[in-house]
Structure formats: C-alpha cells, structure tokens
Specification:
alpha+beta; Immunoglobulin-like; Rossmann fold; 7-stranded mixed beta sheet; 4-stranded antiparallel beta sheet; flat
Length: 533
C-alpha cells in the first residue's frame, strides 16, 4: 500500500571519536540498521567503508534508503572500530551510535547528534552528522509542438496524428519516453504543452539525439508512421521561444520516390528546461507541515462510559480515536519543528455554558488550542471526553474553514514555507455535506490536505464522495476542486493490520498533494537544492 517517494542518499561523518586502538587511531565504519517492528528487531540496510586511523572520518560511500512519507522509519546508526576483515561486528569495538527517524533527518537536512553507547547513555566522546540528499535529475523539458501539412493517411478522412518521443538506447534501439494525445481528423494539429524529464528523454545528456515520430492513430490496426526526425536535445533547447521547423521524413517514401520532400513539418514553438521539485525538496528546503486534529464528539458515538461507545477507553488505554491520532501524528510530528499542534472537537455541548460547538479547543483554551506533541493531543482528548456532553449534529465545514484561514494567510506569502494537514476522525454520516463540499473546494486552492478517518461501522458513502476518487468533487454551485486534497480511510479495514498500516494509507497522498499545490502556484522550495548538472 505504501509507495516509495524517492531514494535518499545519506552522507555520514563523525567527529572526536573514541580511540580504542593501542599505538594508532581507530579505524571507524558506520552501519545503518532499520527497525522491523519490535523494540530490538533491527535489520542492516547498508554500511560505509572503513576509514583507517581517523577520529574524524568523512565516509565516501553514501547509504541508500527508500523513503516513505507515510511511515515512521526508525533508523539506527552504529559506529565501530574495525580491527579484522570479517563482516561480523561482534569482535569489533563499538564507538557509539544514535537512533532517530528518517523523517527527522530529511526535515533537518543536516542532522547532528552525540553518540550514545546505549539508549539514554552518552558515549562521552564523539558526534555523528548525517546529511540527506535526494539523488536524481530533477530537470524537465517543457515543449510546445505543432505540425503543418501532414500526409493524409485515412481513406475516409485526414489523419489522427499523435507524437512519440524516443530516447536513444543501446545500439540501434530507441526507448519510448513520451506519447502525446491524439488529435482527430487534423493535418495541422497543435498538441498540448507537455513536460518530460530529461532523465527519461536523454538520460540527462543534452548532447544525445532524440527521435520524434508522428503517427496516425488507427483504432482497428497498428498505427501508421507519418514521419520522423532525430535531433540533439541541445538543439531543441536552443530554440527557446523562437519557432523552429523540422521536416517529418518517412524512410520508405524517401527510398521509393525521388521527388519526395517530406510528410509534413513540425514546428517547435517553445522548448525550455524547468526543475521538477519533489516532496523532499520542499521539506528539506524548509517547508513546515502543520498538523491539526478534529475529533467527532457527536452523540452517535455512544456514551463514553459504556464499553459499546467508540469513545470508550479500554482497560489497556486505547480506542479507535486514540489509535488514529497516534498512527498519523507520530509520522507528521517529525516535520514540524515546534511540535505544537492545534486540536479541536466538534458536535458536543461544551462547559461552562453547554452550548453546542463545532470547533472547540480540545484543551478548552480558545486562545491557545495548541497541544505539545502527539502526547499533548492524547492528554487533551482524554480530559475532554469526561468533560463534554456528546450531542450533534455532525458538521465538518466549521473546522475545515478554521484551518483554511491559517492556510490562506500562509498562501499570501510568495514562498513554499507552510503546508497544513487536517486529520478529521469521525463515526459516520455528515450533516452539512453541501457546506463541506464548498469548504473543500475553497481549501483545494490553499496549501492544505484533509484526511478523514472513519471509526466504527457506519455507512461512509458521504466520506467516499468527499474523497473524490471516483469523480471530481464540485461545490454546490458547480465549481470543481482545484486539486485532489481529501483522503478517506475506514478504520475497520485496519483493525487486524500492523499498527503502521493505517498511517501508511492515510498519508500516502500527502506528498503529491503538497507538490501539486506549490507547482500550481509555481513556487520553488524556500532553499532549492543545487542543480545536479
């Protein structure tokens, strides 16, 4: 269910390491392990080379990790003084290590910690510094192409042309890099502006030729070639915004007809390079993810004192609401430096006036709804559940609008510095569906994502409708969402799954939602990465 966002390369260096060797300095090596479930279940992912006689090593080998935004990826870095050629570390001196999450590393960009001999006990000497870097060519070629006077290929019509761009492979092989849309019955087509990564197009080498082929789509048989040409990518880029023409040549026609000129002209109206930034570029470039929780306190949850209630806290201290908060919060908290999270309830009568509220502060402080970390949210929830009266109706729009106000204020700044994730945990039917639709359409224009976790066994058709996976969500007036920002997940699907599975699923869409917003606004990261070339 989880999708790798990217591969991260970690650069490791240490300072002031302990000296365990007699007559020389230590020969350090760093081992990277990943937690596989339990507290002491670790699996080795990679290790650096050994650096001889050095208390301040800079390891040349990069350690590679698959990065998943949706997971809490617990890592352990162990530094050893290697005294033998064996790959086993049992006989080598342990100089110290550090445990952390990959989220902490990528959000810090440069992560420095003192080495510990065991958890909570400092080694006394030595620091480790970990630098995260996403290793890939982020450049995109953006092209605007049109054709004129193409050959007529259809017996009863003109042609249905489409383009294919190929990368030069080994020998005479060409690898498909891009295919355009088909334009029906047209010998002078204008294709939509499109982007293709330079890695796909030419493996990042601008001197390499690409092949551009124009074909006629035939629904009943294979497509017919109209014509093709090859050109170095560099030559295309030199056109910039100057219109340049190339001839489409059909090789067979050229062989057979001496009078043959071409099968049409392609006009390159624009070709330029843009950078396609990733989720990690934004996070490592300084973007903060602001996490807000909204909890359903409507009467349909049942009396919290009854074991049948969804708000009933079991003897081992859990319920579905608490599990959802923990699962999602533990991932998101690594991306917020101050760890202060606003938390709200809705659908309850709130003391002291016992008025129904749809956005009351979970800690009952309307001027400061912030909770310290995920544990702070848990503590506020436990206190609220015994101090409010569950009531109704189930209105989502007030809390969505509340978070939207903060997102709208951040959107005024011309930087990719803030993004908002709202987690709503609810037990069922929504009362203000039309107002919520309108609120989501407005929120889709802002730096914001909405996650809805449905607890219990109610009918969640309305939530699935808001998710919009089966169609584009519209406001009551017919305005479409600017982008997909809602993810709905029923908790019951994860009751027997590993505890990480819920977070992996509900957060899987957030990286592309974040990128889609900043791309829509044409905003680069606050501190963009250095270009690869």
């Amino acid at each position: 269910m989880a999708h790798c966002v990217t591969k991260v390369h970690l650069t490791i260096s240490c300072e002031n390491l302990m000296d365990k060797d007699v007559g020389s300095l230590s020969d350090p090596l760093c081992v990277l392990l990943q937690n596989t479930g339990g507290d002491d279940q670790w699996m080795e992912l990679d290790r650096t080379e050994r650096v001889k006689n050095c208390q301040k090593p800079e390891f040349a080998k990069k350690l590679e990790v698959d990065y998943y935004f949706e997971r809490v990826q617990k890592l352990k870095f162990g530094v050893y003084d290697i005294d033998n050629k064996s790959s086993e570390l049992n006989d080598d001196d342990y100089l110290g290590g550090v445990e952390c999450t990959l989220g902490q590393i990528v959000s810090s960009k440069t992560f420095t910690r003192p080495l510990q001999l065991k958890k909570g006990k400092l080694a006394g000497k030595g620091n480790i510094t970990i630098i995260a870097e996403e290793m890939q060519d982020k450049r995109m070629a953006v092209l605007q192409l049109e054709a004129r006077n193409l050959d007529k290929k259809d017996f009863m019509g003109k042609s249905d042309p489409f383009l294919e761009l190929f990368r030069q492979g080994d020998g005479d092989k060409w690898q498909l890099a891009y295919r355009s849309e088909v334009i029906k019955n047209n010998l002078n087509p204008n294709w939509k502006t499109f982007s293709v990564s330079l890695q796909s197009l030419c493996n990042g080498d601008l001197q390499k030729p690409i092949k551009v082929a124009c074909n006629d789509m035939d629904e009943s048989s294979s497509s017919d070639l109209i014509g093709e040409f090859t050109v170095p990518v560099k030559e295309l880029l030199e056109t910039k915004d100057q219109v340049v023409e190339f001839e489409f040549i059909h090789p067979e026609k050229k062989k057979k007809k001496k009078s043959y000129k071409n099968s049409g002209i392609i006009r390159v109206r624009s070709c330029k390079i843009e950078t396609e930034y990733s989720f990690l570029d934004y996070v490592m470039g300084g973007c903060q993810i602001n996490f807000t929780v909204g909890i359903d306190f409507t009467g349909s949850n049942g009396d919290p004192r009854s074991p049948n209630s969804l708000h009933y806290i079991s003897p081992n201290g859990v319920n579905e609401y608490l599990t959802a908060i923990w699962s999602v919060g533990l991932v998101v908290q690594d991306y917020d430096t101050d760890k202060l999270f606003p938390a709200f309830g809705f659908g309850a009568q709130v003391p002291p006036n016992w008025q129904v509220s749809h956005e009351f502060s979970l800690n009952f402080d309307p001027n400061n709804p912030y909770c310290q970390g995920v544990q702070g949210i848990i503590d506020a929830y436990r206190n609220a559940i015994v101090n409010v009266r569950l009531y109704g109706p189930t209105n989502f729009s007030p809390i969505i609008t509340h978070v939207s106000r903060f997102a709208a204020a951040s959107a005024q700044a011309p930087t990719a510095a803030q993004y908002y994730v709202l987690l709503i945990i609810t037990d069922g039917e929504i009362t203000d569906l039309d107002q919520t639709r309108n609120a989501i359409v407005e929120a889709s224009k802002l730096p914001m994502s909405i996650i809805i976790v449905g607890v219990g066994n109610a009918d969640f058709k309305a939530m699935e409708f808001l998710d919009g996976d089966d169609g584009v969500l519209k406001s009551l007036a017919g305005e479409q969402v600017a982008r997909d920002i809602v993810q709905f997940v029923p908790f019951r699907h994860f009751q027997n799954a590993p505890k990480e599975a819920l977070a992996q699923t509900v957060l899987a869409e957030v990286p592309k939602q974040l990128v889609s917003y900043f791309k829509m606004r044409n905003l680069p990261p606050v501190n963009p990465p250095n270009p690869t070339q």
